[in-house]
């Protein structure tokens, strides 16, 4: 359990009271601080600042500048372009500072002091160099800034001239080396061409390579043709196995004479039938007899027609399909022999060409190496000659475009010290030191004796703590008109704790809040008012629920003006945080009324969890509802 109680925060009213008691000390510290600052400001040597700006337009900064190295023509890039940082490094040298000290009339000023007085910075885009010069007089600051700008322009021009001369020498050396390498590569290439006995080795290598490719293609075509002929021969040989060499064209046949005899008899019978019909009817026996004979003859003809011809002589000849396939097979075998002969010859030619290509590969690589070396040397010689021509032009137009765009002006207002700013700062510092020393003196001074009843925000050690909150006492759990002497003593003790105030303080306003419900706050307020009223203490009671919060300040003012010694506000339960928060701020704190169903420690912990969500309330104390074992232990310990 935390038994420490944080001291109440110092309010503006209390701070004003402390400063009022210690005003001689605060005033003395304030005056001494302001006077010391004013004196030191007068003693400080003034420092003035002047600025001059130099434009580096395509001259000393950025790619492709006028001070760029001419070797870029050879190397394909810029090897000597200076950045703004490089220009600053050139300035921050002892040689530059020495010239500046002589021409600006700085006497025997050290290099470190000169470096401090001359600050360099760059403008936007890196094309402007700014000289920030500081001096003890306006004239000195102006002279340092302008002199530094003039010296830098001269330094840039001298550096450009020296760089051009150095680049020209490098180009001359590069041209000599390139010409020597070109001549050597040309002689080596000529010796190689003579050894090859070819005026154009490139065309020779290309022709031989193309010849090899064509022969390889011919060999592939011949092999494809050989495979096709083999497939054809196999198919034709297979066909000859199943085709007969001879074929029967037909047989000699004789006509069947039985059929003609039957047909003749049928014709005669039909003629008789026609004659009979002249004398007889269709259903007469004579006609029917003839019909039966005609039907029998026709059936005999149908049977005889099954063998309408009789066997004669047989005609046998050569099979033309067999003869044609055999002829094609012979031609295919002849072609296969020719193709195989061509394949052998072509293979020999291809082998010879491939061996030749193997030997030519090394020669071709040697030729390409020599030709590449010659072309590179020729290109280097051409570039070097172009660079020398450019160097000649650069000597005439190589001065960098560096000029002053803004000369340093004579400053009117010193950079330091600034009397007005120092005075304002000294006033604030004096106030801070005066108030701080007053509070320190008040802290170490002898504190006055404690009053008869201690202030509730600074309880005596004899007052027990529950969860870091002073335990003001216990109260009856039920409302009754007849209180026992013991209950009256306890309520009187609680009431005097609540009614206590320092001399000169306003009427205390105490907000009573229930932990679980608000049904005991009004009862406790009434009981405390009744007991204190017996002793002559005037207590006012007021039930608040947050509905009339706007009118509450005026009501409290009226009750205080009525001569009351204590104002008790019977408020809601702590779980109604939205209502409790404005009431607690208005009353300046709260008093917890613990629940009779739970221990005091649990009630305090619950109230802390509910009320410290977003802000920190001020607890004056807690009132227990009954004598619990833990509460008795706390009282015995106190």
Automatic annotation (TrEMBL):
Superkingdom as given in the UniProt entry: Bacteria
Transmembrane segments: 23-41
Organism: Armatimonas rosea
Coiled coil: 168-195, 336-363
Alphabetic keyword roster: Coiled coil, Membrane, Transmembrane, Transmembrane helix
Protein name: Uncharacterized protein involved in exopolysaccharide biosynthesis
């Amino acid at each position: 359990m935390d038994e420490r109680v944080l001291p109440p925060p110092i309010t503006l009213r209390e701070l004003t009271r402390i400063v009022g008691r210690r005003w001689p000390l605060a005033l003395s510290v304030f005056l001494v601080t302001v006077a010391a600052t004013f004196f030191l400001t007068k003693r400080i040597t003034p420092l003035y600042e002047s600025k001059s700006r130099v434009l580096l337009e395509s001259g000393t900064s950025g790619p492709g500048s006028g001070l760029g190295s001419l070797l870029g023509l050879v190397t394909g890039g810029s090897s000597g372009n200076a950045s703004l940082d490089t220009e600053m490094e050139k300035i921050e040298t002892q040689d530059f500072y020495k010239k500046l000290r002589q021409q600006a009339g700085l006497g025997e000023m050290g290099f470190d002091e000169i470096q401090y007085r001359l600050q360099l910075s760059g403008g936007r885009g890196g094309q402007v160099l700014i000289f920030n010069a500081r001096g003890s007089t306006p004239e000195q600051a102006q002279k340092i800034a302008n002199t530094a700008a003039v010296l830098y322009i001269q330094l840039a021009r001298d550096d450009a001239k020296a760089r051009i001369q150095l680049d020209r020498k490098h180009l001359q050396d590069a041209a000599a080396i390139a010409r020597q390498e070109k001549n050597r590569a040309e002689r080596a290439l000529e010796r190689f061409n003579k050894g090859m006995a070819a005026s154009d080795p490139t065309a020779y290598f290309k022709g031989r390579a193309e010849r090899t490719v064509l022969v390889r293609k011919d060999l592939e075509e011949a092999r494809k043709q050989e495979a096709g002929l083999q497939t054809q021969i196999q198919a034709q040989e297979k066909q000859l196995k199943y085709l007969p060499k001879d074929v029967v064209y037909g047989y000699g046949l004789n006509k069947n004479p039985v059929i003609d005899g039957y047909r003749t008899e049928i014709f005669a019978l039909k003629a008789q039938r026609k004659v009979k019909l002249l004398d007889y009817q269709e259903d007469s026996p004579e006609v029917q007899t003839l019909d039966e004979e005609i039907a029998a003859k026709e059936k005999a003809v149908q049977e005889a027609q099954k063998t309408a011809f009789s066997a004669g002589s047989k005609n046998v000849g050569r099979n033309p399909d067999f003869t044609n396939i055999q002829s094609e097979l012979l031609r295919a075998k002849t072609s296969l022999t020719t193709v195989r002969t061509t394949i052998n010859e072509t293979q020999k030619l291809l082998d010879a060409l491939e061996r030749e290509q193997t030997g030519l590969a090394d020669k071709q690589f040697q030729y390409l190496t020599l030709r590449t070396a010659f072309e590179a040397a020729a290109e280097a010689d051409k570039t070097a000659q172009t660079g020398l021509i450019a160097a000649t032009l650069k000597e005439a137009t190589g001065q960098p475009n560096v000029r002053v765009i803004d000369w340093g002006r004579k400053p009117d207002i010193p950079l330091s010290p600034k009397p007005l700013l120092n005075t304002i700062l000294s006033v604030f510092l004096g106030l801070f030191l005066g108030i701080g020393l007053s509070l320190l003196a008040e802290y170490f001074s002898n504190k006055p004796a404690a009053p008869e009843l201690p202030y509730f925000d600074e309880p005596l050690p004899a007052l027990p703590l529950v969860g870091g909150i002073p335990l003001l006492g216990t109260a009856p759990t039920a409302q009754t008109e007849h209180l026992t002497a013991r209950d009256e003593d306890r309520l009187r003790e609680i009431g005097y704790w609540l009614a206590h105030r320092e001399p000169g303080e306003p009427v205390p306003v105490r907000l009573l809040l229930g932990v679980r419900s608000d049904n005991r706050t009004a009862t406790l307020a009434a009981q405390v008012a009744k007991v204190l009223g017996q002793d002559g203490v005037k207590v006012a009671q007021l039930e608040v629920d947050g509905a009339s919060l706007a009118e509450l300040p005026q009501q409290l003012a009226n009750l205080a003006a009525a001569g009351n010694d204590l104002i008790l506000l019977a408020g809601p339960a702590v779980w109604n945080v939205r209502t409790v928060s404005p009431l607690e701020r208005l009353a300046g704190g709260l008093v917890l009324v613990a629940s009779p169903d739970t221990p005091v420690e649990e009630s305090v912990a619950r109230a802390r969890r509910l009320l410290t969500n977003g802000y920190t309330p001020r607890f004056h104390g807690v009132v227990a509802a009954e004598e619990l074992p833990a509460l008795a232990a706390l009282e015995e310990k106190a």
